[in-house]
Design brief:
Radius of gyration of chain B: 24 Å
CATH superfamily of the domain at 317-486 in chain A: Cytochrome c oxidase-like, subunit I domain
Strand content of chain B: under 5%
CATH class of the domain at 317-486 in chain A: Mainly Alpha
Order of helices and strands of chain A: HHHHHHHHHHHHHHHHHH
Shape of chain B: elongated
Shape of chain A: globular
Oligomer: heterodimer
Order of helices and strands of chain B: HHH
């Protein structure tokens, strides 16, 4: 088996010099990595395409907030459609696909087995992109559903569900056929995410679209779904990647593996109760909201276990942030995870929610989670995974640094602007003496700042897209220096 | 109308039951024992504990010196 494996440029020599002792392991890792090359690169490339387009739409939506006349003459590009298109492009086009790509690679590595049924994942990818394309076109044409996070028109939903069910079936196949041994915490997170999402998506669509519920239950199901997409789909994938990447890059096992198991099971237990805290103050039974607020506070357990674990794992190794792009993005994302989760808990406090609800503050929180946490960890994982799939190293560390700093400063500026602006907006709106026009005008500076941050973030994505395209074309650096399959210490 | 609701509730219970079953399996299978070894399962002889695996920025600064 090992003799027939063709190992990309420059690595063969390293392998020979690394000694026979490690050869079996190395070849196995190479086989596993290579087996998932096509599907993973497909999901990454498609995800990045949606990210670039989604960033453009996000910028248009942001610019319209302070220049409402911008592109306002064409119904397809009016604010109500552009914002929704942005959300769905980045959530389902970019974030979900990056997550599936990272998930496929991680599952294969952690199952210590080559990818099974690659055709299944590719068909799922095609269906998924077809669904997102039709859905976004439908939204721009004005067929959007008035359900947050489920705005795709009815005719796009079955395509997405088929794609998603295929990914779920694939995950079961992989898990059942894994090599014997320990099931690592990342695998728990991934396997759970891959099974939870089809359930969430299927349930929400059956009782909101196919056989719609009536009255306030409709709103309750809406937020049960929308919040669980974040907590039971994106969060587990992001944490799975962080739990693998951080120890792997610094070469040190997770500080407390016990805590990681506790974190997983408490997330599984508490998260799905959280959604109703979006409905504080709404016409809902008070026990429903109260149970959700309590569950939101219980989230402190999984959040703090993850925070303590990652911090203690990193302790004494923070210097490595200077060497590894993967670590830089992943640790940034992991820190933001703690921050955004604590912020989320605070926003479930009714007194604070009264101010922040329905303001730009919530928008800032959403971006902090989906971008600062999830997307940054996905970037970090892609910096680790892509060289191992294409067999060459990233062309330019300078481009990676620009990507990191533009993204990091961009998201920090965006969240600061929206948090301060949103707080002022909320406080003014609660004061009947303040004229509405004054409230709107007072947010102007913050909205303009948000557009500036959008330019920074979009530039970061252009840089990353360009760099990724170079990697796809095998224009990365090759030769004995590659970290792709062996680290330099073992080789030398 | 009641049939889909019934189905949804049953699937929900099924999922919750599967989570309990998974936890039970994990405990019986020894997945929740010997955490020390579990944490090390992502390392092997090729990429052992104590060896970093991603040093893109570092290599750039070293290269001119050795070349």
């Amino acid at each position: 088996m090992s003799a027939t494996v063709e190992i990309p440029g420059g690595i063969a020599a390293n392998r020979a010099s690394s000694g026979l002792q490690v050869e079996g392991e190395v070849v196995q890792r190479v086989v596993v990595d290579r087996s998932c090359r096509l599907p993973v690169l497909f999901f990454f490339a498609a995800g990045l395409a949606w990210l670039l387009l989604g960033s453009l739409f996000g910028f248009i939506a942001s610019f319209k907030m302070h220049h409402p006349e911008f592109l306002a003459d064409w119904s397809w590009l009016t604010w109500g459609r552009v914002r929704v298109a942005h959300l769905n492009m980045v959530a389902y086009g970019w974030a979900s696909q990056a997550g599936i790509g990272v998930g496929i690679w991680l599952m294969s590595r952690l199952c210590r087995a080559p990818l099974r049924a690659p055709g299944l994942t590719l068909v799922a990818g095609l269906f998924w992109n077809l669904g997102v394309t039709i859905g976004v076109a439908g939204i721009l044409a004005g067929h959007s559903q008035s359900i947050e996070w489920l705005e795709f028109p009815k005719y796009a939903t079955p395509l997405l569900f088929v794609a998603y069910a295929l990914v779920g079936i694939w995950a079961v196949l992989m898990f059942v056929n894994r090599r014997p041994g320990h099931v690592y915490v990342s695998q728990w997170y991934l396997f759970a995410a891959f099974l939870w999402f089809p359930w969430l998506y299927g349930t929400a669509n059956v009782i909101m679209q196919a056989f719609p519920l009536k009255g306030v239950t409709y709103g309750a199901v809406n937020w049960w779904f929308a919040h669980n997409v974040l907590g039971l789909w994106f969060t587990p994938i992001g944490l799975a990647a962080a739990y693998y990447m951080i120890p792997k890059v610094i070469g040190r096992p997770v500080h407390s593996y016990y805590l990681s198991a506790l974190g997983f099971w408490s997330l599984a237990l508490f998260y799905s109760w959280n959604g109703m805290h979006h409905l504080i103050g709404g016409p809902f039974p008070i026990w429903l909201i109260t149970a959700s607020v309590v569950a939101s506070f219980m989230m402190l357990i999984p959040v703090l276990t993850v925070a303590i674990n990652h911090h203690m794992t990193m302790r004494g190794h923070f210097g490595r942030l200077a060497e590894s792009p993967t670590l830089r993005f992943t640790v940034f994302g992991a820190m933001i995870y703690t921050l955004v989760s604590l912020q989320g808990v605070s926003m479930a406090i009714p007194a604070w929610n009264k101010i922040t609800h329905f303001t730009h503050y919530t928008v800032g929180h959403a971006h902090l989670g989906m971008y600062g946490f999830f997307s940054m960890i996905m970037f970090g994982s892609m910096y680790y995974i892509v060289p191992r799939l294409v067999g060459c190293e990233w062309r330019s560390p300078t481009l990676i640094k620009w990507h990191f700093w533009l993204s990091a400063y961009g998201i920090i500026l965006m969240v600061l602007a929206l948090s301060v602006g949103g707080f002022l907006q909320g406080a003014y709106l609660l004061d009947p003496a303040t004229p509405f026009e004054y409230v709107v005008k007072s947010t102007m500076l913050f909205l303009q700042s948000r557009s500036v941050s959008g330019v920074a973030i979009a530039s970061a994505h252009l840089i990353f897209g360009f760099h990724f395209a170079l990697m796809l074309l095998r224009l990365g650096r090759t030769g004995g220096e590659a970290t792709t399959f062996l680290s330099r210490e073992v080789r030398s | 109308m009641t049939l889909p609701i019934l189905l949804i509730v049953l699937v929900g219970f099924g999922l919750a039951a599967s989570a309990v079953a998974a936890l039970y399996w994990a405990a019986r299978n020894g997945q929740l024992q010997d955490f020390e070894r579990g944490a090390q399962s992502i390392f092997d002889e090729g990429e052992p504990v104590g060896v970093p695996t991603d040093r893109v920025f570092r290599r750039r600064t070293r290269k001119p010196k050795s070349a």
